[in-house]
Amino acid sequence: MNAIRVRGLRKAYKGHQAVAGVDLDVARGEVFAVLGPNGAGKTTTVEILEGHRGRDSGEVNVLGVDPAEGNRAWRSRLGIVLQSATDAATLTVREAVRHYARYYGNPRDPEEVIELVGLAEKAKSRAGTLSGGQRRRLDVALGIIGRPELVFLDEPTTGFDPEARRQFWGLIRLLAAEGTTILLTTHYLDEAEALADRVAVLAGGRIVAEGTPQTLGGRAHADATVRWMSDRGYTEIKTSEPTKVIAELSRHGELAELTVTRPSLEDVYLELIA
Amino acid sequence: MTTVTSEAAVPGTLELGLARGAAELREFFRQKENLIFTVSLPAILMLLLGTVYVHEAAAGQMFAASMIGAGIISTSFVGLGISVVADREDGTLKRLRGTPMPFTSYFIGKIILVFVSSLFEAVLLMVVAMLRFDVELPSTAEKWFTFGWVFLLGVISCSLIGVALSSIAQSTRSASGVLNLPYIVLQFLSGVFISQAVLPESLRVAGSLFPLKWVCQGFRSVFALNDGYAVMEAAGSWELGRIALVLGAWTIAGLVLVTRTFRWTNEAS
Ligand SMILES: Nc1ncnc2c1ncn2[C@@H]1O[C@H](COP(=O)(O)OP(=O)(O)O)[C@@H](O)[C@H]1O
Ligand SMILES: [Mg+2]
């Protein structure tokens, strides 16, 4: 059975349709990214799956349970990393992680978790003194302390500098390698491409494309563009058989500045959310 | 390889409540503004106002008793209400809701916080009153017993009402107004700063509807040099039975209100 199954999910705020009929399937052990611009409905969708928000209609099943009826046992199988949190500011990293470990029947070892998220050196610092990236690592530590089967991360790297993002990605990969199912939202293309087994593009409350990062939006089958410099300047040919085209052309001699390109994920994405 | 072992029995509600209480206390005592405003303010007020009001021993006893009453209402009703709003504002409540911790444990933790901070505040105030105004502690076990149950019922009922009212406020800034206004008004209507006996009937009745008057009256019965001072109360007696009734009723009303109005987040859900 899938970790997450959603059919026809809808949710409106005061007449504004934030989620307008979303279907999702996330398999166990999969890293699934919901990619979309600000206001697409990512947080709304994820928070409905977490049991934080209600829904207007649709079927939702998370680890075999409807989140609207999730009990303690169900919650102990989830890990939630919220989009923003400034709580526990006066507790140290170690105190906070140890404290949250007590809520679960079979938690991970707090020291190991602190190590895993890369906060060993900050274990004695108060949460309120951490940098943005460190604070998110603490949020992840608190999210995974209960040994969750499924982890939700809502825009975990928004506002990070490039290096902090790379480090954070390493952490997500570690979790994924342990078999944890991960649903993350992001508005960064490269993040979805780097981390996700599958991506759904959410725009205006609807899923407009879904697939692996390689095939998203029909990218793998899209026509390639062959481009070179001729006497008449840059010349382009769109073709599904670039090899054949180049073989033809090269019979007349060397082709200057030859390139073969397919639409980048970015091109596809911008097209999709336009 | 999977890590599907998270379903072991979740810890008990009381055990988690105690753990919450320990974390709450840690956070509370690490914030200077709590130490200054919540814990020390009643003692400072005692020192300032006492210098004006207290000219003889009997008055010192009565004023100290009223100030202890006002102080625990400040930590429970105002302090706790604001701390719940802060928990909503900084995401504590949202995070907790996503864990297997039951709401009851959260509330047990808050009650522990209020008890301990109220106790600190009351002890500090007593020390000031004893050193500066020669106030005497109650001498009989019976008085201490009365002190105990009035303290307990006062803290629990006012905590519940504070949490219930905290749902009205969207931010800690507005909470401080929502909670402090009734608190300050009630101090005047409940015989803390001025004897209820001198108030017009209508204001006296209004004050008597709320817990503060009854908590203070209970403490005055404990600290009075002798029971003859009961004649200074509006009813002319200590009315211990009625104190228990009113505080008990507010506890039940508070419980109902909290279960009806409690919000985990500020967002529409
Ligand atoms: N609590 C709320 N009340 C009213 N409108 C909301 C609320 N949360 C989100 N919205 C609106 O719903 C839409 C989707 O928001 P959200 O789910 O937060 O998107 P994302 O996380 O993709 O940025 C936005 O137009 C947003 O303004
Ligand atoms: Mg969002």
TrEMBL record, chain A:
Transmembrane segments: none annotated. It comes from the Bacteria. It is a peripheral membrane protein. PROSITE patterns: ABC_TRANSPORTER_1, ABC_TRANSPORTER_2. InterPro entries: AAA+_ATPase (IPR003593), ABC_transporter-like_ATP-bd (IPR003439), ABC_transporter-like_CS (IPR017871), ABC_transporter_ATP-binding (IPR050763), P-loop_NTPase (IPR027417). Keywords: Antibiotic resistance, ATP-binding, Nucleotide-binding, Transport. Its main location: membrane. Residues 4-229 form the ABC transporter domain. It is found in: Cell membrane. It holds the Pfam family ABC_tran. This is ABC transporter. It comes from Lentzea flava.
From TrEMBL, chain B:
The chain crosses the membrane at residues 35-55, 61-86, 107-132, 144-165, 177-199, 240-259. It is found in: Cell membrane; Membrane. PROSITE patterns: ABC_TM2. Residues 29-265 form the ABC transmembrane type-2 domain. Keywords: Antibiotic resistance, Cell membrane, Membrane, Transmembrane, Transmembrane helix, Transport. Belongs to the ABC-2 integral membrane protein family. This is Transport permease protein. It is a multi-pass membrane protein. Pfam families: ABC2_membrane. Its main location: membrane. It comes from the Bacteria. Signal peptide: none annotated. InterPro entries: ABC2_TM (IPR013525), ABC2_TM_bact-type (IPR047817), ABC_2_transport (IPR000412), Nod_factor_ABC_transporter (IPR051784).
